Amino acid sequence: MSELKQLIEIVKKLRAHDGCDWDNVQTSKSLIPYLLEETYEVIEAIEIEDSKLLKEELGDLLLHIIFQSEIAKENNFFELSDSIKHVSDKLVDRHPHIFNSNQDGSYQKGNWELSKQKEKDRKYILEGVPITLPALTRARRIQEKAASVGFDWENIDQVFEKVHEEIEELKDAIKKNDTENIFEELGDTLFAIVNIARFLDCSKDQENDKLEYDPESALRFAIRKFENRFNQMEDELKSNGKFFKESSLELLDSIWNKIKNEEK
User: Fold this and answer.
1) Concatenated DSSP letters for 176-218?
2) Lowest mean pLDDT: which of 91-95, 189-193, 233-237, 258-262?
3) Residue 107: what pLDDT?
4) Could you give the CA distance from residue 72 to residue 62 in angstroms, rounded to a whole number?
5) Rounded CA gap, 253 and 229, in Å?
6) CATH architecture of 2-94
7) How far apart are the C-alpha atoms of 221 and 129, rounded to whole Å?
8) CA pair distance 110, 104, nearest whole angstrom
9) Cβ neighbours for 47, distance < 8 A, ≥ 6 positions apart
10) pLDDT of residue 203
11) Neighbour tally for 118: CB within 10 Å
């Protein structure tokens, strides 16, 4: 891994007193916004299936991992090798049926979360999901943890029943103009819809269905689709010397439907 060693040396040189003015004053906390940005750029490259971009973005993300570990080393906290050893040991410990004995029966559904709870000395199974995660992603992870120990729906029809139930409760709260309850019921509805995505992924045929139903990715896809159609609509208006504010809703709907139909 000569390339990895080279990258580590480059970061060390940038962090030196005679190195880069920007790099050598950074802290673990000051780098958080850039780490988060790089993570989302990796996600975007995966979602648009751009392997060339993914190669580049993984390198950028790796840089931040090296950067964080180098700062930790400077403060005598730990080194990158310690992180690598820790995750390697953890993977082996959590997969005894693969690394110790193929006959090991200790690996069963739910054991992964239970082993993490014991390993990290957590009071509750649902602990450990970062509160800073995007809400849709955090909702799914919480649901996955609960489902892994048996608290789950038996079939997707039950999930849809729950969604319809939450929608009716939201509609009722809106009719009553109960603002506090509207807020709560809106959250419950979104949480129930996330369950559909999770359940679809759990139920799909792993051999034939490669599409992921992650709610965060699905919503980002819907947003990109809306942006693309809206931009096309704006282009068409401009080509006819018109603008949104002076166009009727009927005209905008007709252009929107035309663009939508052309996509099919």
Assistant:
1) TT-HHHHHHHHHHHHHHHHHHHHHHHHHS-TTT------HHHH
2) 91-95
3) 53
4) 15
5) 12
6) Orthogonal Bundle (1.10)
7) 24
8) 15
9) 217, 220, 221
10) 66
11) 9
For the chain, what is the mean pLDDT?
A: 89
Amino acid letter, 72: A
Average pLDDT over residues 89-112: 70
**Phi, psi (degrees; rounded to nearest 5) at 77:** -85, -55
- Per DSSP, the chain holds a count of helices (H) and strands (E) of 11, 0
Summarised one tens digit per residue, pLDDT across range 1-27 is 799 999 999 999 999 999 999 999 999
The Cα–Cα gap between 171 and 178 comes to: 10
> Tokens 């950028």 sit at which residue?
60
Does residue 250 surpass a pLDDT of 70? yes
Among 158, 129, 133, smallest CA distance to 215 is for 133
Residue the block writes with tokens 């693969």? 98
Q: How far apart are the first and last CA of the chain?
A: 47
Query: What is the spatial distance between Cα 172 and Cα 184, in angstroms, rounded to a whole number?
Result: 12
The full set of domain ranges for the chain reads 2-94, 153-203, 215-263
Structure-block tokens of residue 93: 């410990």
